[in-house]
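For the sake of transparency, this paper describes our internal protein records without simplification. An entry from our holdings is shown next, in its original layout:
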Amino acid sequence: MLETKENPVNQKVLEEMYAKGMHLGYSPTSRHPQMSKYIFGTRSGLEIFDLEKTVDCLSVAKEFVKNLGKEKKTILFAGTKKEAMAFSEKAAVEIGMPYVRERWLGGTLTNFSEIKKRINHLIDLKKKMASGELDKYTKKEKSQTDKKIKKLDRYLGGMEGLERMPSAIIVVDPKHEKIGVDEAVCMGIPVVAIMSSDCDPRDINYPVPANDSSSTSIEYFISEIVKAYKEGLAAAQEAATLSPQVAEKAAEIKN
């Protein structure tokens, strides 16, 4: 599986993925029928992903994310699985994107206007707390407000910067994030997801078949997505820098 002599670059990538444990799926009895095309074989009771196909799928997903970066589009990270929480949050913060860490609230996408009101309410309460505006209230009232802020922040804090519907969502384990994926499908929002052998890829626009329970595998996937988005941002910045020069050159040629 790791022998790709024709493509030494892929060989290095395959070996890195293998070392991260991305090739490991679940037992054959857990496999979703639609994932069969991504399976290479079985070892020690576990299904093994064909990492060459994983590389291809990840490349397609990264190209999509890179284009989003070029257009400075918003992507929403959904990683409420315990193995994914820290990585999703860190990645989102790194590129200034919103994220869902604790639990996906029903209606996040399908009832976005209402969710946005709650996010704005959280932001308003935080501002009032920071400015001392709440000092005029009793100790009990301030305590109640503080508890309310903490509760809202737990579920909505990662989405404070979400001004409009995202252009895509990045998911770790679509089976675990079923509510979020269903909402994205309903709203026509593309889904990029790392998914193991027990998941259904049919509703996923950019499936990446790989181990979605290993922290090293998840970290690799998310870091590649972040890298792709940054490449898109860099390309957009370079194009913006060159545009005036190109226009000036074109004007000189015309004259």
